[in-house]
Design brief:
Layout (H helix, E strand, L loop, with lengths): L1 H14 L22 E9 L3 E7 L5 H13 L7 E5 L3 E4 L33 E4 L12 E4 L12 E7 L1 H10 L17 E10 L1
Antiparallel strand pairs: 1-2, 1-8, 2-7, 3-4, 4-6, 5-6, 5-7
Amino acid sequence: MKFKHVLIVVMMLLLFTGCGGSSDTSDTYTPPALDTEATYYADIDIADYGVITVKLDQEAAPVTCANFVELAESGFYDGLTFHRIMADFMMQGGDPSGDGTGGSDNNIVGEFSSNGFENDLSHKRGVISMARAQDPNSASSQFFICHADSDFLDGDYAAFGVVTSGIEVVDAVCKKAEPTDNNGTIPSDAQPVINSIKVRIEQD
């Protein structure tokens, strides 16, 4: 339990470090809706490691999924990095600043229960979720993939998909990481690079 409590404190420090947050919920962006008759997959290609395939969960977080797909299809994530990594917890990336303070031009609504949204996708090993600043509606482009079950995050972060293949890539990234502090900070020259995130669609 002591270790879990430390992780909770660290996660708060980890995710409340910018992410391009907005204090006005009226400023949130709503991307074009995805096809509800289709299943979307994202192939996250990490240099020197391999591909992590994520199945997006529109039922859990439709706006979050649409935002992620729009950014991926625009090439936004290509060449960005995973800047914070904590073995047995998570790996976080998608920040154009590479230090946890940046994001895209838009913020989206936080689709989780403490913000008034029903989202039943639990933060288990392999689940992908959105990082955010203190404002619940400040998620932008940064995301994290759970390396281990982290269900204490449920209700406060927008989980929006789950790894269907490549969990061994998550393991390898987290195992090799050498953070410089208890926040999981990875030096810029050691941050794993996202070659690309390609979206695939399967009709249901």
